[in-house]
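Dig into my protein:

:::
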Amino acid sequence: MSAPPGYRSLDFSDEDRTDERLAQLSASGWVRGMFFQEIVDEAKRASATLDADSTYTPFHKYPLSSYIRLLQRAARAIHPSAPFHESLYRLGHASYPNFAESLAGKALFAVAAGDFGRVVSLGGRAYAAIGEPARVQTRLVGEREAVVHHYDNFAYPGSYQAGVVAGAMLATGVTGSIYVNEISLSESKIFVRWN
């Protein structure tokens, strides 16, 4: 199937614009430590070296700017031969399963019972619990179609966050297609269609 109007297939050819992202970021942004830890653990599994702490407290709030830098370093270290945004997309795959296994994730996603449509519809509540200033609104637009709209999400909404959606699909056993409309460095719409 082709991309819906206004969306494009995943394209990993964009350049790394991390410095521009950080220049727009508020100093008050934060992310829970569990997401730092998943990146550090992934680097260990890949035998990649990161300039980062080796342990993070799961529900402690850490600066969002540090998280974005960690993602940048990890993308280059863990998948050095892949395009930057493809590496971020691949890193995003672990995010949903990691959060879903936490106490907070289990409480939030218990009602979803492994149903991807329910999981994706709870995305806004999940993002509210895991960091600021990112906001997510999900709108079901068809029986097996949704738009996941990221606002104020500086953690690579068109690549890493698309990978988070792909990871949720894998974890819930569905297949499908993901298309992106990148509006700015901190806003994107991710259209997902699944079987």
Observations:
- The radius of gyration is 16 Å.
